Amino acid sequence: MLKSVFKTTAASALVALAGLAATASPSLADGKMTVAIALDPGSWDPIDTFLVAWGAVGSNIFDGLTYRDENAKLGPGLATSWDVLDDGKRIRFSLREGVTFHDGEPFNADAVKYTFDRLLGDEGAKGPQRANYTSIESVEVIDENTVDFHLTAPDPVLLTKLAGYGAMIVPPKYLEENGDEYFNTHPVGTGPFKFVSYNPKVDLDLEANPDYWGGAPKLSELQYRFIAESATAVAELQAGRVDLMEDLPISMIPVVEGDSKLEVLSTTGPTVYGLRYNTRDGITKDANVRKALTMAVDRATIISSLLGGEASEIASFQSALSFGDDPDLKPLPYDPEGAKKLLEEAGVAPGAEVQIDIRAGNSTMNEVAQAIAAYLQVVGIKATVKPYESSVFLNDIVPQGKTGAMFQQSWGGWTLDYDNTAYLLYHTGEKWNPYGNDTTLDAMLEEQRPMTDVAEREKKLQAIAGYIADQALEMPLYALNSIYGINKRVEGFVPAPDNRIKLNNVSIAE
Amino acid sequence: MAGFIIKRLLQAIFATLAVTLLVSFAIRLTGDPALMLTQGAGSITEADLERIREALGVNRPFFVQYFEFLKGMVTFDFGRSFLGGTPVSRLIATALPATLALAFWSMLISVVISIPLGIKAATSRGRFADQIIRVLSLVGLSFPNFWLAIMLVLVFGITWNLLPPSGMSDWTSYIMPSVTMGVILTAVNVRLVRTTMLETLNSQYIMVARAKGLSETRVLYKHALRNCAIPLVTYLGLQFGGLLGGIVVVERVFNWPGMGTLAFDAVSARDYPVLQATIMVLSLMIIAVNLLVDIAYGLIDPRIRTE
């Protein structure tokens, strides 16, 4: 190791002497795009991680059986069509023909079976992805281009899950020959870009897959750089060494907007924020008090001032893109006078105290919580904000029901289906439901799951959202936009609401 | 000397054990890596978490895990990162040279600037040059290093677009992070050189040297500087430890792929194997530098050798 230290140091000294004539900023080759990613997931195996950062990269290397486009619309991916059979307990997929993996291996029914056997077997058990696919009992090869998925129970969200993350199709022969460990750092898929090289914690290089079934990408090279500090990523963007960055902090929007070479793009994001109530004890046990507290807070002003307008109001715990969202359901209006009246009727004396528990480390949420506390003060409620370290908050405080009267909940909702949120947040006994035990709600949640009639199920989900709003189980706050900083020379980039940065139709102007 | 080195080595081993034990224990109190790994996943049950804990090996008793780590230390196999499974030794093998190169250049910048400036301040004590140098050093000391880093990036990285704002690539990428670290060190070292130089210049043998008609440069750089070297080397050794600590901030701002970045990410992800190994390597290095400093005494000052 010492040797390589000397080598690095000596090399940099030599380059320093010899390279005075060299240009300082490297010029970007035609058709090469560089994307800043906040975190290196450490493994490119689809079953190893749950990071949004993985999705931004992995979606360009791998494909799933289904495909969700930039508008979050679900369509054919590696499967060209599917039939839901046996009351939702079997799904038959017809697979795309003539597709090969980057190493030349053919994509077929065996590859699909191998992928899911691996995900549901020992290898998958070590990672976080398996839990999302446990409704799959087995995958049966019917012929070269047809597979049947046998399910333990109908799973309405499965098709959308198949579009990403753990369900990405992997090459059996390559994996068998090289092993999982090698695959982690040398991924092979069927996607628009092929793996070239990977420096852990530094960067990942990809090149165009000219044989991509969806058409050859317009970029010849694609580089991802891992930059943890968003201020640093913005600096790189301004210096022209990064073309695109995700998660641009709201506070840095003016910097990017102020640079004539750059622009800010934003779209409805998958993440929603709210404050949930302790419905078991204290003043928030009473639904009318919960409604009053919700009415006391001017969420529209919080969005326009604190969030720079980069969010939209929600009436239930989902964004407008989520399956199950009801556009007719309106959030409780901002009405401090009405709130005071409700509180008085409920017998809550002025000066009553509530504690708002939040996750520390997110300055935006901290400001929002302070603003909420101030609004509550106006209606005579004394609110204190208590931040907890993330891990303590998620592991101990919320699941154990040790929160104050109100606590922060933010939810990714990557499947864009309300079931995946509502069931886990409101069904009795679920980890994220420390206080509720409502048999009516449980029954409603259970009832929609096996429904194969899409329209019918949507109605049911909307009814659930309505019921929850009526019970005022939470103070819905907002769906936060996904905000990107981008160099104007990038053409054709459409930000997707699921944060997966798809770049096969993007090009770089001269 | 051999006995002394062996004694110091034993002390070093004990210190490393104590540090790693403390760090390994402390990080396990801060959170569950299985939970951190599955943060984005909605539908995770306790059974899933338990399975992941088993796969990571964190469900075993603490001392079993710590013993595994010690076993790995001997064979230089620190296991795999929880985040993706990259072998920890591979991560360290790339991060350590990056950090050492940064530390080397920062120390070099600071020594090259602070010695002549410190001597100049000492020889012109109380006069204009001394005042200026002292004020500058005070200014340098008062900078928070992340602020200096951000200013450098703004001016040289963005406004003038002369240097890459972040990352480790060609030699130009070394300039801003090394200068950031170097400036802080320089400010301290200038004062140190000035003070020790003043003491030395008042001693009799300097008067003798001057009386013999030696040139002032020779007096300063050959005779006086050598006698200033002991406190300087001691201090630079200590400074190296502090430098490795301060490097976390500078590495993060400049996205430098070194040990600081590695440790920072490991803490956020509760990546025990990476954090344990990073802390161990850093403490070993600090211990090793202190050992080298002790040995260097003997080389600089023959009187110490015979003691």
TrEMBL record, chain A:
GO molecular function, one term: peptide transmembrane transporter activity
Keyword Signal assigned: yes
Domain Solute-binding protein family intervals: 74-431
GO biological process: peptide transport
SUPFAM superfamilies: Periplasmic binding protein-like II
Signal peptide region: 1-29
Keywords, sorted A to Z: Signal
Major subcellular site: periplasm
InterPro entries reported for this sequence: Peptide/Ni-bd, SBP_5, SBP_5_dom
Top-level taxon of origin: Bacteria
Compartments in which it is found: Periplasm
Keyword rRNA-binding: no
GO CC, one annotated term: ATP-binding cassette (ABC) transporter complex
Family as reported in the entry's similarity comment: Belongs to the bacterial solute-binding protein 5 family.
Official protein name in the record: Peptide ABC transporter substrate-binding protein
Lineage, opening ranks: Bacteria, Pseudomonadati, Pseudomonadota, Alphaproteobacteria, Hyphomicrobiales
TrEMBL record, chain B:
Primary subcellular site in the record, as a coarse category: membrane
GO cellular component: plasma membrane
Transmembrane regions listed in the UniProt entry: 91-115, 135-162, 174-193, 232-254, 274-300
CDD domains xrefs: TM_PBP2
Listed name of the protein: ABC transporter permease
Membrane topology, from the record: Multi-pass membrane protein
The keyword Cytoplasm belongs to this UniProt entry's keyword annotation: no
Family the entry assigns: Belongs to the binding-protein-dependent transport system permease family.
InterPro entries in alphabetical order: BPD_transp_1_N, MetI-like, MetI-like_sf
Keywords of this entry: Cell membrane, Membrane, Transmembrane, Transmembrane helix, Transport
ABC transmembrane type-1 domain ranges (all copies): 96-293
BP GO annotations: transmembrane transport
Superkingdom: Bacteria
